[in-house]
Design brief:
Length: 323
């Protein structure tokens, strides 16, 4: 199968028949084999009934329905698990993403050998209250991740199947699949300017809270991917810095007191010096960070997946060579 299209949705009953018809026309015109996987994220309208009706008419339609709303990341994670196509696409169900972009993005994956291709909605039809925060968000994500995509939040993306099978998506991390894939070793990330259309039915399901949760999830991805298997390198390093700083301050305070005594200068008690309390705090913080790193290292070394590594190819191994 050439293409799997994973479409998470919440209360998009009006757009689903039109979206499926559009996808079918594009796939048939380009002679691509495909499947459409609708993930109903706890809709309260007729979305699921429409998906059932589409599946009864078209074999390429698949569907999953959550009992309640879990979020877009959960929907994508379940869709990725069952996707069978060489190329796996994600797109929104609100008709703002154009299926006409799919054949070219599919070609970029296999002819230009990208691991993933991200859409870039260069011209957006969103209100200014959404476009300005999005620009700031994309700028911050580029700076933090080191991946220079213009539009991390674009729902239209294409992946080789092995890429989506290698990542686990949860929380608000669907925006950072390129970051997670990059950390897994998939370095060839492309970008394509895609058509963005004004919303035709319903209203947006995303609020400003995503601009708070999103950066926190990005920090989690960067930290876990970099220090997940060696937490002592992070906690131990900063713990040692804090401890040495506290030890240095303590030494300074004591030397200052000894100098005052030898010179016969009347001096306040060590406990009256503010630096003493700062030194004490840094010693405590340093010790806690170091112990936290030690415990995290013990947990990491005993984790069942501690030796799970991404292997891209095998040569001459994994086969039965016995006579």
């Amino acid at each position: 199968m050439d293409i799997s299209i994973v479409i998470p949705l919440l209360n998009e009953a009006e757009s689903l028949p039109e979206l499926h018809a559009w996808i079918k026309r594009v796939m048939d015109e380009n002679k691509l084999s495909y499947e459409v996987i609708f993930i109903d994220d706890g809709s309260t309208d007729e979305s699921w009934n429409i998906i059932v009706g589409l599946q009864q008419q078209y074999n390429e339609v698949k569907g999953l329905k959550f009992r309640r709303n879990y979020g877009k990341s959960a929907a994508l994670n379940e869709g990725f698990a069952i996707a069978r196509g060489k190329s796996v696409f994600t797109m929104d169900a609100d008709l703002q993403d154009s299926p006409d972009e799919l054949p070219e993005m599919h070609r970029m994956l296999w002819e230009e050998d990208y691991d993933l291709v991200s859409g870039w909605k260069k011209k957006r039809y969103d209100p200014i209250t959404k476009t300005i925060p999005t620009k700031l968000y994309n700028w911050a994500t580029r700076r933090m991740s080191g991946i220079y995509l213009h539009d991390f939040n674009c729902g239209l993306k294409a992946y080789k199947n092995e890429v989506v099978k290698s990542v686990e998506v949860y929380g608000e991390m669907h925006r950072y699949i390129p970051v997670m894939a990059h950390r897994k070793g998939y370095k060839k990330i492309g970008e394509k300017v895609v058509l963005h259309q004004a919303r035709k039915y319903g209203e947006t399901k995303f609020g400003l809270s995503r601009f708070v949760r999103g950066p926190l999830d990005l920090l989690s991805i960067i930290f876990v991917s970099k220090f997940g298997k060696r937490p002592m390198h992070f906690f131990g390093f900063w713990g040692a810095i804090a401890f040495l700083f506290g030890f240095g301050l303590t030494t300074f305070v004591l030397v200052q007191k000894l100098v005052a005594i030898t010179q016969g200068v009347r001096k306040t008690l060590v406990a009256d010096n503010p630096l003493f309390y700062l030194a004490l705090a840094m010693l405590v913080v340093g010790s806690q960070l170091f112990m936290g790193g030690f415990l995290a290292e013990m947990i990491s070394r005993n984790a069942p997946n501690r030796n799970n590594y991404e292997i891209s190819e095998k040569l001459g191994v994994g086969t039965d060579e016995s006579a």
